[in-house]
Amino acid sequence: MSEILTAPLVVEFPFTRSLGPVQSAFLTGLRERVVLGVRTTDGRVLVPPVEYDPRTADEIRELVEVGATGTVTTWAWNPAPRPRQPLATPFAWVLVTLDGADTALLHALDAPGPDAVRTGMRVRVRWAAERTGAITDIACFEPHESGGAGPATPHTGVFADPVTGITTPARLDYTYAPGRAQSRHLAALARHTTIGERCPACRRVYVPPRGACPTCGVATGEQVEVGPRGTVTTYCVVNIKARNAAIDVPYVYAHIALDGADLALHGRIAGIPCDQVRMGLRVEPVWTEGARHPDHYRPTGEPDAAYDTYKELL
Amino acid sequence: MRYARDVAIVAFAQTAHRRSSQDVSETEMLLPVLREVLDRAGLAPGEPGFTCSGSSDYLAGRPFSFTMTLDGVGAWPPVAESHVEMDGAWALHEAWVELLTGAADTALVYAYGKSSAGDLGAVLTRQLDPYYTAPLWPGPVDLAALQAQALIDAGETDEQALADIAARSRTAARANPHARLRGPVPMGDHVAGPLRTGDCPPVSDGAAALVLAAGDTARRMCERPAWIRGMDHRTDPQGLGLRDLTDAPSARLAAEHAGAFDAPVDTAEIHAPFTAQEVILRKALRLGDDVSVNPSGGALAADPVMATGLIRFGEAAVRVHRGESDRALAHATSGPCLQQNLVGVLEGESR
Ligand SMILES: [Zn+2]
Predict the structure, then answer these.
(1) CA terminus-to-terminus distance, chain A
(2) B288: Cβ contacts below 8 Å, ≥ 6 apart
(3) In this complex, is the C-beta atom of A200 within 8 Å of any C-beta atom belonging to chain B?
(4) Chain A (151-180) residues lying within 8 Å, Cβ to Cβ, of chain B
(5) Fold of the CATH domain B126-200+229-347
(6) N or C: less crowded end of chain B, CB within 10 Å?
(7) What distances in angstroms separate CA B219 from CA A168, B6, B39, B320, one per listed residue?
């Protein structure tokens, strides 16, 4: 059995999110070193504030300012911080009820070790040096003995140049493993041959193989070499250049049924003017040195295939 | 509550869950399980009246990854099919409702997760509130540890009691050939204090599938069907600081609406990935010491994310099938710190 292939796969997505009026005031407030909460219709102060009361679903808009000091309600020691977490050195995750608030905010607490942390301890906000209007404008909390700062006070929530949206970049790292069927297929391509897999029930040959027959719902196991020649079953002329694509337009993108295959695969057609490409055109792959896929397919010069020979593969 | 039709789980199958299944694609991992469960129900691929699956693109790292696994169900010509980007237990709920409407008599439900493709601790941060929480990248163990500490502070448990839960679960898993951890493991160091390695689920790749059938069809397919007497799912507020982390009100509410409190259960398969969460769920679901809790070993013995909740239903159902349980509760959770909860009640007919 051939080697199972794996490859690194990085997924990065910079989500841009708009803010509601309450979230906007809260995050703008953090930029200005002010912590805002929102008062519910039954008088509780929620920090961090939300746009709708999770209990009653009321729209809540009454903003209040709470203290930058508070009390730890629960904590968890993080001995090995991971990338992008608030602190690079071991720290405690904490839920903190700020003075004047009735709910708790999740953040990091900078403490020398777990023995220095307990539920009920007093802490205060350590502000980030550079603030943009994000939850990370709070760099972390730090231990700070102080009495309560008193009840929340009304606040308009109005600041100059309010933050109306946030960008939250995210990156996740994967190791992609295509599995048995696709590993075998890719390994064969590296030898400039194309293999498909045959369904034991309906005998169809799938290229590229995905390990199962979608009609019969059974595993395909038998490898079958197909091609190298094939027939264009349908095609289009691409006239608009895709971003980052190295190929000049216009070019022909086609579905090609390799000889022996029961499924057409995709490929580019070259070596013939675009306006002469046609359904039924017989083609063969053109490989370039070191490539894992044919660079393109070109006409073989054979007579065109009859429509009846590929009509089921359209 | 009475429903329009009687619907039962008639067959269940799962993989032997592994740390890594990089040698197979998701479809290849799933195929033997689909074949096994359909064989048990006497159905051919493509024959179930409805198909519903649960999985997550974030685990796979690819958009619409679930469309690939449809190859395994015989989806061409097209079948009636749906997918939830959640644990398969929620796919089960959708399929159950579909059968209750009379639109189908049988349904195939499956779920799978290959946690080995990515870094689960990072991946699961992406399900958190994107404004206030996700930018801090707290992992699932970090958040479960906050919950465990709150429970310890409230005097409801301690580290020894949590270690006992871990040991009991993995000892039970000795009888479960599909489990990853079959027997107690050392509790190890704090991953996120107060939770130690042993308090956490083993990162697992795996898949599971079950077949639902209505009325006489169910009786034909299975000697003792596990009749679904009720099922409900609820959620608690998204903000962790808005919740009492020592409780799971949504689990209690779901259980109430599923009819779980109408009569005692003898068995409960609960989805508690972390030891402290079993303490909370026993309380919320009113499970006394006379109830056999997680005889399979539960999520602490194998945790193929997105399938773990569905497996609770399968494990409870096979105990009804085998006559080991007459009335079982099955529970699934999703989100951080037991945020969302789904509860079902399964019964066997009296013998
Ligand atoms: Zn077939």
Answers:
(1) 33
(2) none
(3) no
(4) 166, 168, 170, 172-180
(5) Peroxisomal Thiolase; Chain A, domain 1 (3.40.47)
(6) C
(7) 53, 11, 16, 13
8 A C-beta contact, residue A223 and residue A195: yes
pLDDT tens-place string over residues A123-154? 999 999 999 999 999 999 999 998 877 899 99
Gap from CA of B25 to ligand 1 centroid (Å) = 18
A116 in reach of chain B (CB within 8 A): no
CA of A135 to the centre of ligand 1 (A): 53
Residue of chain A whose alpha carbon sits nearest to that of B77: A215
* Chain A residues touching B135 at Cβ < 8 A: 134-136, 168
pLDDT (mean) for B49-59: 96
Q: Considering only residues 285 to 304 of chain A, which have any Cβ-Cβ distance to chain B shorter than 8 Å?
A: none
Q: Name the β-bridge partners of A285.
A: A297
User: Could you tell me which of B48, B9, B45, B49 has the C-alpha nearest to residue B218?
Assistant: B9
Position A247 scores a pLDDT of: 85
What is the per-residue pLDDT across B233-281, written as a single tens digit (0 to 9) for each? 999 999 999 999 999 999 999 999 999 999 999 999 999 999 999 999 9
pLDDT band with cut points at 50, 70 and 90 for residue B351: low
Residue A43, C-beta contacts closer than 8 angstroms, at least 6 positions apart = none
pLDDT (tens digit, 9 = 90+) per residue, B124-137? Answer: 999 999 999 999 99
Tokens encoding B245: 């982390």
Can you give the pLDDT at residue B11?
98
Separation between Cα atoms, residue A230 and residue A269, nearest integer Å:
12
Q: Estimate the share of chain A in helix, then strand, then coil, as percent rounded to the nearest 5.
A: 10, 40, 50
Whole-number Å distance, alpha carbon A229 to ligand 1 midpoint, is 24
Residue range B41-56: average pLDDT?
A: 96
DSSP B11-55: EEEE---BS--TTS-HHHHHHHHHHHHHHHHT--TT-SSEEEEE-
Q: Domain boundaries in chain B?
A: 7-119+202-221, 126-200+229-347
Q: Which contiguous run of DSSP H or E holds residue B343?
A: strand B340-347
Name the closest residue on chain A to residue B139, using Cα atoms. A82
Residue A87, chain B, CB below 8 Å: the answer is: no
| Of residues B70, B137, B142, nearest to A214 (C-beta) | B70
CB-based contact, A306 to chain B, within 8 Å: no
Which backbone phi and psi does A177 adopt, to 5 degrees? -125, 110
**Chain A hits for B46, Cβ within 8 Å:** 215-217
B122 with A114: Cβ contact below 8 A:
no
The one-character DSSP state at B293 is E
Q: How far apart are CA B81 and CA A292, in angstroms?
A: 35
pLDDT in tens, A198-234: 999 999 999 999 899 989 999 998 999 998 999 999 9
Query: In the prediction, which pLDDT does A242 show?
Result: 83
Tell me how far apart the alpha carbons of residues A83 and B195 are, in angstroms, rounded to a whole number. Answer: 21
Q: Which amino acid makes up residue B327?
A: R
The count of other CB atoms within 10 Å of the CB of residue A164 is 14
- The CATH number of the domain covering residues in B7-119+202-221: 3.40.47.10
When scoring A106, A109, A135, A168 by the number of chain B Cβ atoms within 10 A, the one with the most, hence best to mutate, is A106
The CA distance from B82 to B55, in Å, is: 11
What averages of pLDDT result for each successive group of 10 residues across chain A (314 residues)? Answer: 83 92 98 98 96 93 97 98 96 98 98 97 98 97 88 96 94 93 92 94 93 92 94 96 84 96 94 96 93 92 96 90
State how far residue A66 is from chain B, nearest Cα, in angstroms: 15
